[in-house]
Amino acid sequence: MNLKEHAKEYILKNPNENGVYVDFTMGNGHDTEFLCGVAKNGKVYSFDVQPAALENTQKLLSEKGHTNFELILSGHQNVKEYVKEPIDGGMFNLGYLPGGDKSKHTMCETTFKAVKDGIELLKGGGVLVISVYPGHDEGRREGEMLLEYLATYDRKYYSVMNCRMINSYDSPFIIAVEKYAK
Ligand SMILES: C[S@@+](CC[C@H](N)C(=O)[O-])C[C@H]1O[C@@H](n2cnc3c(N)ncnc32)[C@H](O)[C@@H]1O
Questions:
Q1: Is 72 in contact with 7 (CB distance < 8 Å)?
Q2: pTM
Q3: What top-level class would CATH report for the domain 3-179?
Q4: Distance between CA atoms of 182 and 125, rounded to whole angstroms?
């Protein structure tokens, strides 16, 4: 099973081509590019703290002909300063940029705030998908923190799924939070 493709399936369960989506960890722009394709007539906000991520993503999206995006050089913990409307979905791909500076990784405290705010922004029927990489120390802490925190969400309003390989403890895993439509 391919984790990246599986993360996309959660978004594709209830896609909205006029919708608003957020890529909370832009990196080289692959998830932003995917979301731009989902929200063909909508908008994608994408966050990263590294200028190189914005440069690489701008290049990728221009090559693919997308114009429905806003790239934001800021931490995802500031999402509510930039996104003022309800969102149809969002993606987190935690950790560090492959091939980039490994010290610029996501951190428990800011990830917690971004996930909490992202869930508050979700429309009914919307999904937040988080890919977690427990193979490094901060990634393991992020995973443990998110599993503990997200287990507290009320079952009446949210489903919170965890998809992981139970025979490979350090392998990446997915948490998907769906807010039920009213
Ligand atoms: C695993 S990479 C993301 C890969 C990306 N989804 C892609 O398709 O290429 C994680 C990214 O999160 C970024 N990051 C770290 N802390 C962040 C924060 N507080 N807010 C937003 N992005 C952050 C890193 O700079 C890195 O580019």
A1: no
A2: 0.97
A3: alpha beta
A4: 8
The C-alpha angle with vertex 98 and arms to 111 and 31, in degrees rounded to 5, equals 65
Q: Tokens 């932003």 sit at which residue? A: 32
Q: What angle do CA 154, 160, 162 make, to 5 degrees?
A: 145
Domain borders along the chain are 3-179
Q: Using CA atoms, how far apart are residues 142 and 123, in angstroms rounded to an integer?
A: 25
Residues with CB under 6 Å of ligand 1 are 25, 27-31, 47-50, 53, 75-77, 93, 95-97, 104-106, 110
Give the pLDDT confidence of 135-156 residue by residue, as tens digits: 999 999 999 999 999 999 999 9
Structure tokens at 168: 């490979």
| Distance set, CA 79 to CA 88, 115, 117, 167 (Å) | 14, 10, 7, 35
Q: How far is the CA of 27 from the centre of ligand 1 (A)?
A: 5
Q: What is the mean pLDDT of residues 106-123?
A: 98
Quick check: 4 and 172 in contact, CB under 8 A?
no
Dist CA 9 CA 4 (whole Å): 9
- Distance between CA 139 and CA 100 in Å, rounded? 16
Q: Residue 6 has which token pair?
A: 């599986």
Q: Which of 171, 78, 91, 169 is nearest to 126 (CA)?
A: 91
